[in-house]
């Protein structure tokens, strides 16, 4: 049995990890391997956080398995195991289709250089200089340049090039043209390294393999356990209150959102005015909407690409992409190759979205808005997979309200915080000794690779604290 | 621990992190990062392993001291002086 019921938990552990997103899971695994006793608490019935899936009418739908950078291979090998690493496979058919251009790419540097030079007629020296610039960006570099300024410097007035370069990253982490250029450069370079990859077997298989690895390394896992509050004594963390139980620990890692962690789990009264001032300036990122399509057993469609960045909007605009009526969406297409042991055809349409827009609606309006979004997604999908309506036997929509319900994230954010959240997250233990935070922050510590690597970085901080 | 012993331990730790790391012809005064294709996550792993094995604390601002094999040895020598090889 992988999970331990709440009533059977011990009264104390070295570290309690609250939340089982990829960052929390990795942090727990790393600390357990370093010899510490670890309790992992998750409010939901299953692990994974936003790395999740759900089952409907025989289909399995992946919520956030859309493609990650090649860096995941090394990261999974080092911090998980070989079997997990060996399940990573490339998605080499990435499609862009919008009024400004249509193209197919393997989404790696070699192909992008060719496309920029041949299709967009950008001089080779400019392309090389652009790649050299983004490749050497570090998170501690100067942040004053925005992505808009970066693009204008290299490709002035070329809104088509800006769209090619930014649109995928906007879907990946909610970036806009007004973010620090370094956040763009770091994430874009990660992808450009070797292209886009996925996990063969789907999110369910990955999370179950991680669960087995955690258990093998001695981590105690307890689900359906929502932490009410941290226990703080003499200005340091000594444990958590979960249900009506107190569990003690030398340190606590919160994989809850950073805003939740400070405001709800700890309480603002435990932080200095200076920290709170910086904390209050942290902006949470936007949320998402999705439409899930399941194709009837026995039906099929041709290979139209793995990831389709589509839009009928004339130009790229972050505002347009967040609008409830957006004409821009990504289709992630899952073929039988995704789950060879359980072959199926499914499609997930992803859009960015604002929590406030969806919260404003009453129940009737909300249901209607979902139906309308499904309809718009069908119309767009029909252009790539003709006759899809007749083949689908399950369709449903998720909105920022859905993301909020399952992750408890402030405003249903699906990409954590903007850049300033990174420093707040990393320095929380200086404010409240024993408390650490891991989770999507600062844009660069977001996405599957960012979340896992941040789990390792924070595990190193916790290990240092426990051994000091 | 002698300088040679410290050197062997660094190599052993890097080999655990990346079994494909090739040490033949390594320039002990040139950055490990370039020669062995190590990234910042790998250096974090080295730091965590040193802490686990020898209770050495290396603050983040001193990570650059680990840049080359020789700078690693120079930096760790005083810290490992009284530690015996296990």
Describe what this molecule looks like in 3D:
The complex is a heterodimer of chains A (468) and B (86). Chain A has 468 residues and is of the alpha/beta class. Chain A is 41% helix and 22% strand. With 86 residues, chain B is mostly helical. Chain B has one domain: Non-ribosomal Peptide Synthetase Peptidyl Carrier Protein, Chain A (Orthogonal Bundle). Chain B has helices at 3-17, 32-36, 40-54, 69-80. The longest helix of chain B has 15 residues, at 3-17. At the A-B interface, helix 19 of A face helix 3 of B.
Strand content of chain B: under 5%
Number of helices of chain B: 4
The structural class of chain A is alpha/beta
**CATH domain class of chain B:** Mainly Alpha
**Number of alpha- plus pi-helical segments of chain A:** 19
The Cα radius of gyration of chain A reads 22 Å
Structural class of chain B: mainly alpha
Q: pLDDT average of chain A, as an integer? A: 96
Sheet with the most strands of chain A?
7 strands, mixed
Q: Provide the number of structural domains of chain A.
A: 3
Which secondary structure elements does this structure contain, and how are they paired or packed?
The complex is a heterodimer of chains A (468) and B (86).
Chain A: E1 12-18, H1 22-33, E2 38-41, E3 53-56, E4 59-62, E5 68-69, H2 71-79, H3 82-86, E6 88-91, E7 94-98, E8 101-105, H4 109-119, H5 124-135, H6 147-154, H7 159-173, H8 181-194, E9 196-199, H9 202-216, E10 220-222, E11 227-233, E12 236-242, E13 245-254, H10 258-266, H11 273-280, E14 287-295, E15 307-311, H12 318-322, E16 328-334, E17 346-353, H13 355-359, H14 363-382, H15 388-391, E18 392-398, H16 400-407, H17 421-426, H18 428-431, E19 435-437, H19 447-467
Parallel strand pairs in A: 1-2, 1-13, 2-10, 7-15, 13-19
Antiparallel strand pairs in A: 3-4, 5-9, 6-9, 7-8, 11-12, 12-13, 14-17, 14-18, 15-16, 16-17
Helix pairs in contact in A: 1-9, 1-19, 2-19, 4-5, 5-8, 6-8
Chain B: H1 3-17, H2 32-36, H3 40-54, H4 69-80
Helix pairs in contact in B: 1-3, 1-4
